[in-house]
Amino acid sequence: MQIVVGRDIEDTKKFGTSGTINIGRHIVGTGEDAHFTTPVLMDILRPHLTILCGKRGSGKSYSMSVFVEEMLKLPDEYKKSLCSVMIDTQGIFWTMKQPNEKQAVELGNWGLKPRGFNIKIYVPEGQKKVFEQAGVDFDGAFSVSPAELTSEDWLGVFELNHNESLGILLQKNISEISAINDYNIDDIISRIKKEKGFEAEKLALINRFELAKTWGIFGESRMPNLLEPGGSCIIDVSLTSQNVRALLISIIAKKIFRERTIARRREELAETEGIRIKKIPMCWIMIDEAHNFISSDENSASQDILLRIVKEGRQPGIGLLLATQRPEKLHPDSLSQSDLLISHMLTSKADIDSLRAIMQTYMLFDITKYLTDLPKMKGVAIVLDDNSERIYSVYIRPRQSWHAGASPVAKI
Ligand SMILES: Nc1ncnc2c1ncn2[C@@H]1O[C@H](COP(=O)(O)OP(=O)(O)OP(=O)(O)O)[C@@H](O)[C@H]1O
Ligand SMILES: [Mg+2]
């Protein structure tokens, strides 16, 4: 017997346990008497909205890597129609290329061996040198064109208001320069300089654009193809400030949404006409520290597109995995729309209460009790599955690749 989460009765009848990833084992019993039994599998045939939460150091980033490892280990027939794009806010996922020798014994107990995975790591073009100096083994650089940003994006990233004079000047200039196909920041600056009057505002705005050049995200390389069949990309935004990260997530998520929407339309047409076409894989977007990008109290640059994916992502085949220490700080729609919730240990009452938003009235389980009954060890979690209307305690399997997010230990 195996447990499949994220799959409803109909799909279970149709697909059995195929098209799943093996995330760990079911925990039976509580506290010290707990033992690990049946394998827990997770559906990857459908695009899910998954929330992965837990307090600091409880295992979120670790579990996220396990999901990526499992997707990369899928048989070709499933792997080819999937890909993942992970936004790495802490610069910790590049080590997935290296084997996890440290936990070789633990892995052995699971019948697994340490190994590295073929992931692709991209860093901002203007930060390449810093990553090289830090010894990060990245595969390529990415950059965006200033022409990809709307005046709304600029207002947001510069934290300016529509109605203040700087905001008005910015909107006017971006709207005028938008007539040109591609332009760089110097073109924007020259445009602003030509403006008559408003000397103080012009200077303030030019200073902001000069600063934008130092973010390292504008350049010539552009975005790589993120939707490679069976691919797994890591976008390292760890050296990028919070509002610029949100902007990058917005650009990346919009690109994926656009490409998958077009692809879905072509797929549907091809299905009705019975013709074969080159497939663009369904995509899982995985975001660590997601409460900063789809938040209950702030409106960051990524908010609108992520909310759109939360509400409409199923149709174009986009799965979303949002990892956070603070589920309470996630936008309420992301909680209420999620169909799979994986929660490592949480202690704040407000956070535990927020999880109830995904529980339908028929799920009358006591989440607090489930959480406190978990054995006191890393990597354990409860899984709330709205597809099968069940709740499980799970021990997530050890990683095969090296985990760089381990807490340092102070010792003499
Ligand atoms: N399934 C697991 N098996 C064994 N050890 C684990 C497991 N999950 C987590 N750990 C251990 O717990 C540590 C903390 O995990 P992780 O870095 O994923 O925490 P986190 O929830 O992402 O924390 P933060 O919120 O600070 O980013 C890891 O370094 C690892 O040693
Ligand atoms: Mg983490």
Please give a handful of descriptors for the protein shown.
14 helices, binds adenosine-5'-triphosphate, 35% helix, 13-stranded mixed sheet, 2 domains, binds magnesium ion, 18% strand
Give a structural overview.
This protein has 412 residues and is of the alpha/beta class. The chain has two domains: 3-143 and 219-396, 3-Layer(aba) Sandwich (Rossmann fold), CATH 3.40.50.300; 146-213. Helix content is 35%, strand content 18%. It has 14 helices and 13 strands. It has helices at residues 9-15, 60-72, 76-79, 104-109, 128-133, 151-157, 165-177, 185-194, 199-213, 242-273, 303-312, 332-337, 349-355, 367-373, and strands at 3-5, 20-28, 35-43, 49-53, 82-88, 120-124, 140-142, 232-236, 282-287, 318-324, 340-343, 380-385, 390-396. The protein has a 13-stranded mixed sheet with strand order 1-3-2-13-12-11-4-10-9-5-8-6-7. The longest helix has 32 residues, at 242-273. The mean pLDDT is 92. Adenosine-5'-triphosphate binds next to helix 2.
Output the CATH class name of the largest domain.
Alpha Beta
Number of structural domains = 2
Describe the largest sheet.
13 strands, mixed
The unique ligands bound to this protein are: adenosine-5'-triphosphate, magnesium ion
Q: Which strand-content bin applies to the residues?
A: 15-25%
Helix content: 25-40%
Going by helix content, strand content and strand pairing, the class is: alpha/beta
Here the CATH topology of the largest domain equals Rossmann fold
Q: How would you describe the shape?
A: globular
User: Can you identify the CATH superfamily of the largest domain?
Assistant: P-loop containing nucleotide triphosphate hydrolases
Q: Could you give the order of strands across the largest sheet?
A: 1-3-2-13-12-11-4-10-9-5-8-6-7
Can you count the beta strands? 13
Number of helices: 14
* Annotated CATH architecture of the largest domain: 3-Layer(aba) Sandwich
Uncertain regions: pLDDT < 50 for 5+ in a row? none
Q: Write the H/E string, N to C.
A: EHEEEHHEHEHEHHHHEHEHEHEHHEE
What's the mean pLDDT score?
92
Q: What is the alpha-carbon Rg in Å?
A: 23 Å
